[in-house]
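Reviewer 2 asked us to include a model.

Predict the structure of this chain.
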Amino acid sequence: MIEEVKIIECPRDAMQGIKSHFISTDDKVKYINALLNVGFDTIDFGSFVSPKAIPQMRDTVDVLNRLDLSSTKSKLLAIVANVRGANDACQFKQIDYLGYPFSISENFQMRNTHKTITESVDVLKEILTIANRHNKEVVAYLSMGFGNPYGDPWNVDIVGDWVQKLAKMGVKIVSLSDTVGSSTPEVINYLFSNLIKDYPQIEFGAHLHTTPSTWHEKVDSAFKAGCMRFDGAIKGYGGCPMAKDDLTGNMPTEKLLSYFTTQKVATNIKPLSFESAYNKALEVF
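Predicted model (C-alpha cells):
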C-alpha cells in the first residue's frame, strides 16, 4: 500500500430521498453505529434542514445523541442549507464538518435551497464565519460540478472560476458533485488534474453519481488525476433518483473499495466491519 485515500460514507444521502416510509430512529442509529466501526474517514450522517423539505432527516439530533463515538476515528459531517442550520449544527461538539450544497446552476440552487447563487455566496460566507468560531470545517459541495442539464451555461472554465471564488472565501475542502451522473472520464480528469495543481491549499473530493456500467471509469479518472477523497454509499443507494440497476445512484462504496484494493491503495477500511455494515444496509433499505 503506497498511498491512502479518504472514503466518505454518506448514509444521509442514501436515506434522504426515501418518501415511501420513515426509517425509524432506532434503525438509523444501529446502521450509523455499524458504519462508525468500519474505518471511514468521515460519515455524512444527517442534516440540519427543514423537516418539511427533508422529512426523512427530521430526527438528526436524536440520532446524533445516540451514536457511539467512543471507539471510532471517523469524523461526522452534517449538511446545512442556511445560517440557522449552521448555528444549530454547531451546538454539537460531536460534529466536525458542515457540508454546504453550493450549485453553479442558478436553476438547481433555487430548487435545492430556494436561493439565488448571489444569495448563496452570502450564506456560505456567514457559514464559514460560524464554523470558524466553533472550530469546525466547511465542505463546499460544488453541485453541477461536471455538467448541467438545466440549461444554465456550463464549461470547465466556469467551474474553475467558482473554485477560485471559494478559495478566496477561505473554503479548504471542495467536493465536486456529479449531481445527475453526467460526468465523463475526460471532464473528470481535466478538472481534477488542473484544480489540484492550481489550488494546493484545497482538498478536493469527488461526489460521483453513476450507473452500474460507468462507475469504474469515473473512479479511475478521478484517482489518476490526483483525487484522494471519495464519497460513496453502500450499494449505491440514494443519488438521483433512488438507485436501481437501470438508474443513476450514488457511487457504491463496495465498488470504491474493490477499485482501491486492486490499485493497492490503502483505505483504512476493516473488511469484516464493512461486511457487517453492508448487511445492515440491506436490512435498512
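Confidence is low (pLDDT under 50) at residues 241-246. The chain has eleven helices and ten strands. We have added this to the supplementary material.
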